Task: structure prediction
Amino acid sequence: MKEVLREDSVVLYKKRKRKQNIIWSLYRNGVTTLPQLADVLHTSVPSITDLVDGLVQENWVSVAATAIGNNGRRPSLFALNPEHHLIWVIDISTHGVSMLLVNSWHDVIFRYQADLFLENSTLFVRQLLEFIMTTVERVPVPREQVSAIGIAMPGLIDEETGLNLTYECMNLSGVSFKDWLTHEFMMPVFIINDTKATVLGESRFGKGQDKRHILSINIDWGVGLGIVLNGEVFQGASGFAGELGHIQMDPLGERCTCGKIGCLDTITSAPSVLRRIKRALREGHESLLQKYAANPDQLTIGEVLKAARKKDPLVTKVLEETGLLLGKGLAIAINILNPEIIIIDGILSQAGEQLTQPIKDAIQMYCLGAFVQKISVENTTLDGNARWLGTHAFVMENLIATY
Ligand SMILES: [Zn+2]
Result:
C-alpha cells in the first residue's frame, strides 16, 4: 500500500512540474502550438494535450486561435488565459506611486497614478493605503480574476518577513505592509526591492534575455545595483545584496542619507547631478540652463535631460564626471561578479551615450583586461517599464512555483 501511495505521489509531482513548465513557457514565449510546446518540454503531443486540457479547466490556459483541418475546426494556438490570474503591481517611489492591473500576457489593463512621494511618515502610509483601497474599488474587474499583488519599492527589504528596514513607516505596528495587504485582500502579496525588480525585468523581457549573468545599474533618486547570477536574481542572505550606492567614493565628500560619508549615491544619483548643476550655475558656468541661476529650485531633472540632448557644455561635463565615477564603482562589481552585460536603467539612462560612454571608459580603465573584452554596456530598451515588468515576473514566478 505504501509503495502504491509513493508511486501515486511521484506521478502527481511529475504532472504538477510539467504543468508548471507549461505555464512558465507560455508566460515567457506567448502564443504557441501543442507540437511546439511538446518540443520545448521534451515530451509527446498526446501528453501535452492532456496537461493543457487540465490547465484550460483551471483557467490558466485558453485557446488563442483555431484552424480548419480535415476533421473540422480544432484549436491550434494556446496562450495563458488573459482574463484570469491578473496581478496588481504597486510601484512605490520617491517621485510617485502607480498601480497597474496587469494580465498574464503582461499587458497593462488599468493604470492609476498618485502624487504620493515615498517618505518615512505615517501620513504617507495612510494616504498610500487609501489610494490602494479606492483604486481596487473603482476597477470593474471581479476580485476572483485577480490572483496576487506585487509591490516594488526602494529600501532594504527582508523578503521573507516583508519588513522594510529603510522605510520603517511601512511596518504598521510591527506588521509588514505585505502581511497587512495579504490579510486585507485575502490573496498572496509579494514585495521586492525596486532595483531587483528592474534587473529581473531586464533579464526576462529586456536586454538581459538569453544572458545568465547580468548587472543593471539603476540611477534614479539613488544608485542601486541589480544582480542576476545563473539566471536568478541574487538577493544575498537577507535580501540586501547590491547596495553599490553606499560604497565610499570620496572620503571627504558629503554625508549620505545612510549616515556615512562620500557614498557613490552622493555624487552620482539624479539629485546629486541636479545639485552639482545648480551649484555650477550659481558660480556662473556657461550653460543653456543659465536662466535658472537666479532661481535654481525651479530646475528639474527633466530640464537637465533636455539640455543634455542639446549637448549643453555644463550638463555634458557633469554627466561625464558622473559616468566616470559610476564606471569606477561598477568596475569593483565587475571584477567580483564577472557579468556578461551591464544595463543602464533609471531616469539618468535617458542621457544615453553622454552617460554610457564615460561609464565604458572607466570600466576600460579600472577592470582587468580579460573582463573588458567580453562585457557589453548597454542602455535599457524597456523605456521605464523594467520595474513593473520585473515585479510582474517576480509575482508570476512565485505563483508558478506554488502551483
Ligand atoms: Zn550611503
